[in-house]
Each structure stands twice: as C-alpha cells, then as structure tokens.
Amino acid sequence: MANTASAEELMQRIAAEYDTLSKQLKVIAGYVEQHRGTLMLQRITDIAQACEVQPSAIVRFAQRFGFAGFSDMQALFRDAFTPQGAPQPNYRQRIQSLIANRDEQRSAGGMTRDFIAACQQGLQELDASLDEAQLEAAVELLLNADNIYVAGVRRMFPIASYIAYALQHTAKKVHLLSGLGGMFPQQIRSIGEKDVLIAISFQPYGKESRYCARVAAQHKAKQLVITDSQLSPLARGADAVLTVREGSAFAFRSLTSTICLCQALFIALACRLELNIEETKETGGYDD
C-alpha cells in the first residue's frame, strides 16, 4: 500500500509530479482528477477506454504512486467519497439515467429540470471538495493587493466580468482584462509585484488567459487561479488555486458553482476589508 493517507494527498502528489509523467500517465492523471468522485464505481477497462490506453497503463499509473495495483488506489477514493448510510444515486448518475431513458421529444420543463439537477450536482461537489485553506489564501492575496487584474475568456468571460464588477464595490483598484481590440498585452503590461491577477480558465484553457498568467509571473505579481483541475497549466504557477468541477447536461457545462464560489470569495473579502476599517477606527483615536 502507498504511503498516501488520503485521496486529497494523492491528488496533491499527482499535481506536484505531473510534469515528470509520461504522456500516457498524464492523460490518466487528468482523468483521475476529473472523475475522482466516481472512480470507485468504475472498472479498469472503462477507464482505459476513456483514456484511450491499455488497462496495464492504469496499473502502471497506480504503481507509479506506490500502490500495488488499481484496486488499492480505487479503495482510497472509495474511503474518501462513499457516503455513510444507505447508498443513493448521486446527481450525476440521475442525470445520466434521465438522458439515457429520455423520449425523443423532451419537454422544455423536463430538460430544465435535468439542467437544474446538473447545477445541484456541481454545487454538491463544490461543497464536498472546497479547500478552505486555499480560499483563505485567496482572500489574503486580494486583501493585500494594490491592483487586481481579472482575466477570463469565452465561457469564463461572464464570470470574470461579474467578479470585476463585485470587486469594484470595494476600494480596490480593479482592471478587467477584456482584450477588446486585441489589447491584452497593453491591458496587462502595467501589472507589478504588489498586484494580483485573478485568472479564471477551464479546459481547454484559453491561450489569452495563459498569456496573462505568463506576463504576471514575469512581473512577479501574485496569481489567484480559478480552474477545473490542480493539473491545469495555470494552477502550477499560482499562489492560490480554487478548483471547481461544474455539472453538465446535454453537453453544456453549468456556470453555477463557479459564480457561487466567486460570490463567496467577494463576500469574504468585503467582510475582511470592513473589519479592517472598523479596527482602524477603534485604534485611530487620541487618548484624553
């Protein structure tokens, strides 16, 4: 058995050693990261087929991280993600069942309920996997930033726009990197050591967001990354990483969990800023 005590510690090891893995093992690592909540239910042949590798590659992956074989690694996820009490189908299983058994003509109301279930499943996973230490680190980064730059393109642009809007309710100087007119280089070039970049990027990870992250690193700015995997190319250079795995239905991924996390992040920051103001008022007066 591996020395890894928990599924979370295993995922941290995988992320730390990701760059040293072979191409095949990187594919498997990505699959494990994305399906950690259901890995204990899957057969090795199904995982191999999804990763387009031989089952022996799955065994090699497990052995690479100190397990005797796939079953031992799978047991670690079973201990981490199997709920107590009578087993019940999770939201993902319900959605897949609904889609598999749907009629040719599906009502708008039925499809809406499927999507609501997908959003609920994503929120459930966010609740279960929330890393409070990373959330505190994210708040601390924003609290100490002179300027906050926000980058998110395509599907993540509405999220970036929202968090930039929310942060503008504080006294912080906030810059939304919209790239309007192809101006990403000009918009990011002034970022400095006392600033923070919030980069919001999900697979396939927009090249514009990756560019902004590279510039931030070159200028020694701090980086807060909101992404779907610890194995994201943006995550490995970040000062704080918040991961979100959205639910999906009909091949469309929800934005519900990501917007929820961003709202919570803003509220936590706003409370800290207000608390600092109150403490300054209490200690800033003169004695009689």
Automatic annotation (TrEMBL):
GO MF annotation list: carbohydrate derivative binding; DNA binding; DNA-binding transcription factor activity
Record PROSITE patterns: HTH_RPIR (PS51071), SIS (PS51464)
Alphabetical GO biological process terms: glycolytic process
Domain HTH rpiR-type: 8-84
Domain SIS per the UniProt entry, residue ranges: 138-280
Alphabetized Pfam families for the sequence: HTH_6, SIS
Keywords attached to this entry: DNA-binding, Glycolysis, Transcription, Transcription regulation
InterPro entries, A to Z: Homeodomain-like_sf, HTH_RpiR, RpiR-like, RpiR-like_SIS, SIS_dom, SIS_dom_sf, WH-like_DNA-bd_sf
Name of this protein: MurR/RpiR family transcriptional regulator
Provenance organism: Chromobacterium rhizoryzae
